[in-house]
């Protein structure tokens, strides 16, 4: 029992959780980035309609900040898994327009997985002559996302949409909540390595 308690306590420490994250490949841009890409994170129901999930909004906000700081175009990537209602990309675009009226992002609305995010986004970007991107998603998701986009022939710089809680050695429920997500990402990386990489 004491061991279980100890493991739970250790799992609440941001410094420990940070070590568990899949390592993000180093940036490989042979020139300045040409666009910012953000990956959708699901949709939330609002009565009979949909809205972007809280996680998707956090990603979109982070991506817009990078796009504005570097004066780059923004691509929102994400379809709808069930084929009903607006896409994740369209919902993120709608949310961004409410906050920043001058935003006119590009939309990729057909993807249902991270691999499809990469495949369909790369096709849109290459049509516009873009091969170097800043990719924005959650910290745990960055490794798989970067590898997926690189497999499409893009040069990628990773940008996390959030940071771990601080101070690093102070127990945090937010850090503990990341642990299942991290386990999922390690498993997804194994599956992707067998199927795609």
TrEMBL record:
Full protein name: YdcF family protein
Annotated source species: Alcanivorax quisquiliarum
A Pfam family it matches: DUF218
Gene3D superfamilies to which the protein is assigned, alphabetical: HUPs (3.40.50.620)
Domain DUF218: 34-188
CDD domains: YdcF-like (cd06259)
